[in-house]
Protein backbone atom coordinates (compact mmCIF):
# COMPACT_ATOMS: atom_id res chain seq x y z
CA UNK A 1 0.00 0.00 0.00
CA UNK A 2 2.80 2.38 0.96
CA UNK A 3 4.61 1.47 -2.27
CA UNK A 4 1.50 2.15 -4.34
CA UNK A 5 0.98 5.48 -2.56
CA UNK A 6 4.64 6.40 -3.18
CA UNK A 7 4.38 5.45 -6.85
CA UNK A 8 1.23 7.54 -7.27
CA UNK A 9 2.84 10.49 -5.50
CA UNK A 10 5.88 10.19 -7.76
CA UNK A 11 3.66 10.08 -10.86
CA UNK A 12 1.73 13.14 -9.65
CA UNK A 13 4.99 14.96 -8.91
CA UNK A 14 6.16 14.18 -12.42
CA UNK A 15 2.95 15.47 -13.97
CA UNK A 16 3.10 18.64 -11.83
CA UNK A 17 6.60 19.33 -13.09
CA UNK A 18 5.58 18.72 -16.69
CA UNK A 19 7.98 15.85 -17.05
CA UNK A 20 5.73 13.29 -18.63
CA UNK A 21 6.64 12.49 -22.20
CA UNK A 22 4.03 12.88 -24.89
CA UNK A 23 3.28 9.76 -26.84
CA UNK A 24 5.54 9.19 -29.79
CA UNK A 25 8.99 10.42 -30.55
CA UNK A 26 9.19 13.42 -28.23
CA UNK A 27 12.13 13.79 -25.89
CA UNK A 28 11.78 13.86 -22.10
CA UNK A 29 11.69 17.50 -20.99
CA UNK A 30 14.72 17.10 -18.72
CA UNK A 31 16.91 16.29 -21.74
CA UNK A 32 16.07 19.66 -23.26
CA UNK A 33 15.53 21.91 -20.21
CA UNK A 34 18.52 22.26 -17.91
CA UNK A 35 16.41 23.75 -15.09
CA UNK A 36 14.11 20.71 -14.99
CA UNK A 37 17.13 18.43 -15.26
CA UNK A 38 18.87 20.10 -12.29
CA UNK A 39 15.69 20.00 -10.22
CA UNK A 40 15.27 16.27 -10.85
CA UNK A 41 18.95 15.61 -10.26
CA UNK A 42 18.74 17.41 -6.91
CA UNK A 43 15.82 15.14 -6.02
CA UNK A 44 17.93 12.06 -6.86
CA UNK A 45 20.70 13.39 -4.63
CA UNK A 46 18.47 14.16 -1.64
CA UNK A 47 16.13 11.17 -1.84
CA UNK A 48 18.46 8.45 -3.16
CA UNK A 49 22.00 9.76 -2.45
CA UNK A 50 22.95 9.97 -6.14
CA UNK A 51 26.70 10.38 -6.52
CA UNK A 52 29.56 10.53 -5.97
CA UNK A 53 30.10 14.08 -7.14
CA UNK A 54 33.46 13.27 -8.72
CA UNK A 55 33.69 9.55 -9.58
CA UNK A 56 37.42 9.97 -10.33
CA UNK A 57 38.16 10.35 -6.59
CA UNK A 58 38.29 7.44 -4.09
CA UNK A 59 35.08 8.66 -2.37
CA UNK A 60 35.63 6.17 0.49
CA UNK A 61 32.86 7.52 2.73
CA UNK A 62 30.35 7.42 -0.13
CA UNK A 63 31.13 3.80 -1.03
CA UNK A 64 31.26 2.70 2.61
CA UNK A 65 27.75 4.08 3.07
CA UNK A 66 26.44 2.35 -0.07
CA UNK A 67 28.11 -0.92 1.00
CA UNK A 68 26.49 -0.68 4.43
CA UNK A 69 23.09 0.03 2.91
CA UNK A 70 23.29 -2.83 0.40
CA UNK A 71 25.01 -5.16 2.88
CA UNK A 72 27.94 -5.84 0.56
CA UNK A 73 31.64 -4.94 0.49
CA UNK A 74 32.65 -1.49 -0.81
CA UNK A 75 34.28 -3.27 -3.80
CA UNK A 76 30.99 -4.97 -4.62
CA UNK A 77 29.04 -1.74 -4.12
CA UNK A 78 31.25 -0.12 -6.76
CA UNK A 79 29.97 -2.68 -9.29
CA UNK A 80 26.40 -1.32 -9.05
CA UNK A 81 26.53 1.81 -11.17
CA UNK A 82 24.15 3.82 -13.33
CA UNK A 83 25.99 2.25 -16.26
CA UNK A 84 24.52 -1.18 -15.45
CA UNK A 85 21.23 -0.02 -13.88
CA UNK A 86 18.04 -1.09 -15.64
CA UNK A 87 16.73 2.48 -15.34
CA UNK A 88 19.73 3.86 -17.28
CA UNK A 89 18.53 4.53 -20.80
CA UNK A 90 21.29 4.78 -23.38
CA UNK A 91 19.17 4.14 -26.45
CA UNK A 92 20.11 6.02 -29.63
CA UNK A 93 16.84 7.95 -29.36
CA UNK A 94 17.52 9.21 -25.82
CA UNK A 95 21.14 10.02 -26.54
CA UNK A 96 20.02 12.05 -29.56
CA UNK A 97 17.63 13.92 -27.22
CA UNK A 98 20.52 14.67 -24.85
CA UNK A 99 22.67 15.86 -27.75
CA UNK A 100 19.84 18.11 -29.00
CA UNK A 101 19.49 19.54 -25.48
CA UNK A 102 23.20 20.33 -25.20
CA UNK A 103 23.01 22.28 -28.45
CA UNK A 104 25.74 23.26 -30.82
CA UNK A 105 27.79 25.57 -28.57
CA UNK A 106 29.64 22.65 -27.03
CA UNK A 107 30.61 19.40 -28.72
CA UNK A 108 27.41 17.52 -27.82
CA UNK A 109 28.44 14.01 -28.87
CA UNK A 110 31.87 14.53 -27.29
CA UNK A 111 30.20 15.55 -24.02
CA UNK A 112 27.85 12.56 -24.06
CA UNK A 113 30.71 10.16 -24.73
CA UNK A 114 33.19 11.72 -22.29
CA UNK A 115 30.69 11.75 -19.42
CA UNK A 116 29.10 8.49 -20.62
CA UNK A 117 25.69 10.12 -20.27
CA UNK A 118 22.35 8.36 -20.30
CA UNK A 119 18.89 9.12 -19.01
CA UNK A 120 17.61 7.96 -15.63
CA UNK A 121 14.04 6.72 -16.13
CA UNK A 122 13.31 6.71 -12.39
CA UNK A 123 14.33 10.27 -11.49
CA UNK A 124 14.09 11.76 -14.99
CA UNK A 125 17.45 13.39 -15.46
CA UNK A 126 20.65 13.00 -17.43
CA UNK A 127 23.03 10.90 -15.39
CA UNK A 128 26.55 9.56 -15.79
CA UNK A 129 27.39 5.86 -16.07
CA UNK A 130 30.05 6.05 -13.35
CA UNK A 131 27.66 7.23 -10.61
CA UNK A 132 24.95 5.36 -8.73
CA UNK A 133 22.07 5.82 -6.29
CA UNK A 134 20.06 3.92 -3.67
CA UNK A 135 17.40 3.05 -6.27
CA UNK A 136 19.86 1.06 -8.47
CA UNK A 137 18.11 -1.78 -10.31
CA UNK A 138 19.95 -4.80 -11.71
CA UNK A 139 19.81 -5.71 -15.40
CA UNK A 140 20.85 -2.58 -17.22
CA UNK A 141 21.59 -0.56 -19.08
CA UNK A 142 18.55 -0.13 -21.28
CA UNK A 143 20.01 0.10 -24.76
CA UNK A 144 16.64 0.46 -26.43
CA UNK A 145 16.97 -2.87 -28.21
CA UNK A 146 13.68 -4.13 -26.74
CA UNK A 147 11.99 -0.96 -28.01
CA UNK A 148 13.41 -1.60 -31.50
CA UNK A 149 12.32 -5.28 -31.37
CA UNK A 150 8.78 -4.21 -30.39
CA UNK A 151 8.66 -1.78 -33.32
CA UNK A 152 9.89 -4.49 -35.71
CA UNK A 153 7.24 -6.90 -34.37
CA UNK A 154 4.52 -4.33 -35.09
CA UNK A 155 5.67 -3.88 -38.71
S1 LIG B 1 17.99 4.79 -10.66
FE1 LIG B 1 19.71 3.86 -11.74
S2 LIG B 1 20.13 5.23 -13.48
FE2 LIG B 1 18.87 6.35 -11.98
S3 LIG B 1 20.36 7.48 -10.76
FE3 LIG B 1 19.87 5.56 -9.71
S4 LIG B 1 21.45 4.10 -10.37
FE4 LIG B 1 21.47 5.84 -11.78
Q: Topology, pairings included?
A:
Layout: H1 2-16, H2 29-32, H3 34-48, H4 60-70, H5 74-77, E1 88-89, H6 92-102, H7 108-115, E2 117-120, E3 125-128, H8 145-154
Bound molecules: iron/sulfur cluster (SF4).
Residues 44, 50, 82, 85, 87-88, 120, 122-123, 127, 132-133, 135-136 line the site of iron/sulfur cluster.
Give a structural overview:
With 155 residues, the chain is mainly alpha-helical. The chain has helices at 2-16, 29-32, 34-48, 60-70, 74-77, 92-102, 108-115, 145-154; strands spanning 88-89, 117-120, 125-128. The protein has one domain. It contains 8 helices and 3 strands. It has a 3-stranded antiparallel beta sheet. A hairpin with a 4-residue loop joins β2 and β3 (125-128). The termini are far apart. Iron/sulfur cluster (SF4) is lined by residues 44, 50, 82, 85, 87-88, 120, 122-123, 127, 132-133, 135-136.
> What's the shape?
globular
Oligomer: single chain
Instruction: Provide a count of the helices.
Output: 8
Straight-line distance between termini: 39 Å
Give the helix proportion (percent range).
40-55%
Sum up the structure in keywords.
155 residues; mainly alpha; three-stranded antiparallel beta sheet; 6% strand; disordered N terminus; binds iron/sulfur cluster
Offer a concise description of the structure.
Mean pLDDT is 85; it is low at 1-12 and 14-20. This protein has one domain. Helix 6 (92-102) packs across helix 7.
Amino acid sequence: MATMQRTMEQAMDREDMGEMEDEGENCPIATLDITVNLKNRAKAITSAAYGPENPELPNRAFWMKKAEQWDVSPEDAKQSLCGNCAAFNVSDRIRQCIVDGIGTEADPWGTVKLADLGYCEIFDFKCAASRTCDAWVTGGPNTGEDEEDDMEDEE
